[in-house]
Amino acid sequence: MQHRRLAAAVALCALPILAQAGAQDFTLINKTGYEIGEVYVSPTKSDDWEDDVLGRDVLPDGDRVDISFSRDTDACVWDLKVVYTVDNTSAEWDRFNLCEVSKIKIFYNAKTDTTSATYE
């Protein structure tokens, strides 16, 4: 299994450090109707999710979190995984170009039992 260092970390507040932020920084918006307990962001070329970027926090429905990267992170294409607190199920998306995406909004459709994402 390939090991990698997770460069993403949740930005807890807007500090002057943001001027040194990576081009891959994005905002994750939860519109699923459920609380998210874990968020993983991984370079597409990696086969390991590494650490939950929320740490001990959760992402309630309707809330957003800013996910920041180190300025020296150069990978642009990343995968995203979320894990719901209610039943520990997860949803995954592959190949977000975070050098071009600044916002990812995720949704859950109970009728079709599918989770989807939009981005800008």
What would you say this structure looks like, in words?
With 120 residues, the protein is mostly beta strands. It has a single domain, classed as Immunoglobulin-like (Sandwich). The chain has strands spanning 8-10, 26-31, 36-43, 64-69, 77-84, 90-97, 103-109, 114-119. The strands form 2 sheets. A 5-stranded mixed β-sheet has the order 1-4-2-7-8, with no helix packed on it. The model is unreliable at 1-19 (pLDDT under 50).
* Number of beta strands: 8
> Which structural class is indicated by helix and strand composition?
mainly beta
Look at the structure and give the mean pLDDT: 84
How big a fraction of the residues is strand? 35-45%
Essential attributes:
3-stranded antiparallel beta sheet; Immunoglobulin-like; mainly beta; 0% helix; 120 residues; 5-stranded mixed beta sheet; disordered N terminus
